[in-house]
Amino acid sequence: MSYVFPPAPQASVAVDGTDDRLPVRRIFCVGRNYAAHAREMGKDPDRDPPFFFTKPADAVVDSGEVVAYPPETENFHYEAELVAVIGKGGKNISEEDSLSHVWGYAVGNDLTRRDLQLKAREQGRPWDWGKAFDRSAVIGPVFPVEKVGHPDKGSIKLTVNGEVKQDADLNELIWSVPEIISILSHSMTLQPGDLIMTGTPAGVGALVEGDTCVVEIEGLGKIETPIGKREA
């Protein structure tokens, strides 16, 4: 058998302390998983089942890489997030067993074309154009669980040009990492290389050309994203 054209390169992210790369299979994102962010988006925080959207695996961008201001938007936003990385697959995973499926954790930035997302929301359409565009998932080096454990508290902070925009604690998540993994696995089989972006705190806002966005999570270091000129 041969392919009719060359297959795409394997999307991957860095691993802390090594030159190895971690292959990315899928990227799941949890919507409105901090109460204050839910309120700033005009929604009531509650404990209804969480909802998810996805980004393509090849949307990943390493820390330090320039992200061009994307096309078709006038309201390009940052979103600081904790990322859980699945290392052992499974389905119908119990909440009690969920953390045994995690390989590690990373700092993430869920870049968003907010105007397109909100327009889709108003029209009852999927969020893909606002969330799943090229280079929309900045993912820092993944820290193995044996190095960092399972972060469930600690500072999550984002700055733009040195000014603090988001400042919260991981213990403010509405749905915890074990709960998220269990719920996802009851809908579809999770596999190694699946990334879960667990939601963003309040304080989301716009980025412009020339900005430098930094996200830092206690125990997981920081990632930096310079914003380049608008794509043609």
TrEMBL record:
Similarity remark: Belongs to the FAH family.
Domain Fumarylacetoacetase-like C-terminal per the UniProt entry, residue ranges: 27-227
GO biological process assignments: carboxylic acid metabolic process
Record-linked Gene3D superfamilies: Fumarylacetoacetase-like, C-terminal domain
Protein name per Swiss-Prot or TrEMBL: Fumarylacetoacetate hydrolase
InterPro entries: Fumarylacetoacetase-like_C, Fumarylacetoacetase_C_sf
UniProt keyword list: Hydrolase, Metal-binding
PANTHER family reported in the protein's UniProt record: ACYLPYRUVASE, FLUTATHIONE S-TRANSFERASE
One Gene Ontology MF term: isomerase activity
